[in-house]
């Protein structure tokens, strides 16, 4: 009965010797999920009236979590789902650390600084000592901070010139991740979306002059578009902005959203000019919990120099009796992930990161190649930017099924591979995407290819079309 479960149960509190009552002896010994509380209901949306045994509460939560999908087969997420046993040990040892308590946990604070300085060097900051950065809870917060710095810099320049500051806008691809829509919404910035088209499948600098003006606080370039995994050509976008500056005088900075690519490109495409080597890039963000290989939630954002982060956005927190700058949306947040990032930097080094990312890319390129061989599919890209690729149904292949049906069939085998429509101006195209992460081995990938081939054979052999009622993408970017 709701709410009555444990007030009426006969369980013995954990600190009462089990031998003292016969009933609880049975409770503690019985391994068959027959303990009071396990055999009855807990209230779902109301705090239970009283305590329960830790074993009972643990089992209930553990069992409910078991109903989630298998994270290793989740090829929809970019977020890390595995760390090694040393990392797990470090995680449980440091789960109590609050990142904001820099005075109480000065070593964690120092390690945070070491990490973003390492990242600033990875991203070729001209002088890592003059750069400034911070950890965040993920890329969304990192992007918000990058966007806020752009907005404040623009406001300061406008005020200094005696011009109004009431109509800031941000130029970005229609294929941006939702965090940028949130940024524009929450901080009253007009988003100017450049639609993707068949000719321009990502933001590539063409037509930028139609979107930017004196109220543009910046342009967002994505290293690893969420929908498909392709890199936006940062250097080309910067060159377009250089031309605009020559003709109009407008000096518009770029924030690179490297949520995924920020931790891939330095290792797999070291010669690609996308980072602080491009002078117009003011700031870069990434998710440590994606290809940084750390459990959720950790992100990083780095500004080229301290001058790119307006000082009036930065607060002082006490640190070893002195002060430490803090620029964050949250106050308290976990410090353990920062230690995990440092552990991985020490554990893997440059070569180790290269090997892990290359292994993921090899699997992505193999999978893309096998899917390209199937007549049912047209590849959108081949996994050679970040280890992510998407495909669409070959025009005219079938009128009996679509990629949502394929996604459902693959789910029967445990694979989570979403299908979804592309953004403006390609909303009539539905694609399906695979994100290859550390842990999707070549042999698992071979099983997946077989499962896709079997599912396609089943769907192709249907005599009547699959029903389409209620068939929409439940997937959000
Ligand atoms: C390009 C891009 N930016 C930002 C984000 C948001 O990242 P996070 O989940 O770390 O907040 C994502 C997430 O997929 C992304 O792909």
Automatic annotation (TrEMBL):
Cofactor(s) required for function per UniProt: pyridoxal 5'-phosphate
Catalysed conversion reaction: L-glutamate + H(+) = 4-aminobutanoate + CO2
Keywords on record: Decarboxylase, Lyase, Pyridoxal phosphate
Ranges of biased composition (kind: Polar residues): 1-13
Root EC class: lyase
Superkingdom classification of source: Bacteria
EC number: 4.1.1.15
Keyword Lyase tagged: yes
Any Pfam family the entry gives: Pyridoxal_deC
Residue span of region Disordered: 1-28
Protein family according to the UniProt entry: Belongs to the group II decarboxylase family.
Protein known as: Glutamate decarboxylase
Annotated organism of origin: Microbacterium aoyamense
